[in-house]
Amino acid sequence: MTPANLPSVIRHWIGGDLLDAADGRTFDVADPVSDTVYAQAARGSAADVDRAVTAARAAFPAWSRISNRERADVLYRIADAVEARHNRLAAFETYDTGLPITQAKGQARRAAENFRYFADVVVALGEEAFRQGEEQFSYVVRTPVGVAGLITPWNTPFMLESWKLAPALASGCTLVLKPAEWTPLSASLWPEIFTEAGVPAGVVNIVHGIGEEAGQALVDHPDVPLISFTGSTDTGRHIIRSSAQHLKTTSMELGGKSPAVVFADADVEAALDSVVFGVFSLNGERCTAGSRVLVERPLYEEFTRRLAERAANVRVGLPADPDTEVGALVHPEHYERVLDYVEIGRKEARLVAGGTRPDHLTEGNYLQPTVFADVGRDARIFQEEIFGPVVAVAPFDTEAEAIELANATRFGLAAYIWTSDLKRGHRIAHAVESGMIWLNSHNVRDLRTPFGGVKASGVGREGGAHSIDFYTESKIVHVALGQVHTPRFGARS
Q1: Among 17, 32, 108, 183, which residue is least crowded by beta carbons within 10 Å?
Q2: What is the pLDDT of residues 357-389, one digit of tens each?
Q3: Global pTM?
């Protein structure tokens, strides 16, 4: 279903104005259901990024000087404006990404909550002070870093943009946002949202374009001291290398191959619900997906059989259908990549569910949720991020083996542990190399908690106060309270 008021042209937003690319270039934007081009987006270059950075620098002094309360009031208005467009946002997101409409609506609600949450954080934020007896008093001053460069991914794009926009604005930074080129549609709503909320011109700037061009120009710009990126591990490595030239502060939320460890004493129904939802929701295109399921051997055959049955019953359909549980994958290029992994998996393991296009969907980027069993630890489908509705299942015999298998990839973003023995659950949570662990729970996240991974899954942490730390610099001021007794080097008696 084509949403109402769909734009045919998606322009940059720089200094409060909608602009074409400086050189007039555009790129095609297609929907994932029919792979039909429906819009042209401005194709940003270094010249466009420079215009955006110039606008952000000009707006920075005024925005950074206003009080935290004033900035918070703006963020509350942004949240209200997002919620007022709830249905339109969800329709745009579903049309552009292939996400099921019910899940897209959830992303729109979470985006509004991100702005309200960081408005609350910045108002309540205190600063540290230290007293050294009667001799000296020291206090910390937070200052916004400056112009923040934000580069966001194509999965759940609007919500993940809000995840970076909200703390950057709350901290007093101005910014340049580079949305993902595959899914720029929902970002086209930000200009009217920010204008309605009273965000001053130049505080937020949006440059569309190809990552290797617009994204690279943002990373390379000498007046952008900070880069926050969410995306693939390979791209994250490249950004870190490029950022080293100007010693930029970076936050990298990268790939994942997260394990779900299920012991025989687990609540099987709850674990099964969590595993199915965790790997197949959002079309499997989520960094924290539990895409490696490790099951204790006494439960292995039963759990694998039931997982395959559930996968076969998942409703794959048109993204705009409220009954759809898995929609269309985002782009033909990504779809072919996922299908390639399915073919690899057929040679490496035992296919027990899916692996093909659903019979009732003859076109579009659709794949029936796919389950591979008896997957060896060296298999590519065990080791590499697929980022689609594909899960690898393997057995284990001991707690030590479960930990070893959970840690047997280069990734370490999330992990899920299911056991009724909480002592064992805590032991494994401490032993698994991952930035985030859920014990007897699916991916329920408190916005106050740090988000990020270890190993190839990322560098740094955002979320809660950690985000404010990232977008600000801490300056310590030392003040003498009494007579200063300094050794008198060079004094002659």
Answers
A1: 17
A2: 999 999 999 999 999 999 999 999 999 999 999
A3: 0.95
Tokens of 146: 């400056």
Question: Which range (14-28, 227-241, 476-490) has the least confidence?
Answer: 476-490
CA distances 44 to 14, 23, 213, 339, Å, are 11, 9, 7, 31
> Which string of b and e fits 246-262 if b means at least 16 CB within 10 Å?
eebebbbbbbbbbbbbb
Q: Taking phi first (over 0 means left), then psi (-120 to 50 degrees means alpha), and beta for anything else, what does residue 354 get?
A: left
d(CA 172, CA 119): 11
Q: For the chain, how many helices (H) and strands (E)? A: 15, 21
Q: Is residue 462 among the annotated active site residues?
A: no
Distance from C-alpha of 405 to C-alpha of 417, rounded to nearest angstrom: 13
DSSP 371: E
| Whether 207 contacts 159, CB under 8 Å | no
Q: Of 253, 296, 325, 348, which residue is the catalytic one?
A: 253
**Which pLDDT tens digit goes with each residue over 31-82?**
999 999 999 999 999 999 999 999 999 999 999 999 999 999 999 999 999 9
Hunting for tokens 């998606």 — which residue is that?
Answer: 10
Catalytic residue among 173, 285, 287, 325: 287
Give whole-number Cα distances, 95 to 91, 110, 154, 155, 186, in Å: 6, 19, 13, 13, 10
pLDDT class for 484, splitting at 50, 70, 90?
confident
Catalytic residue list contains 173? no
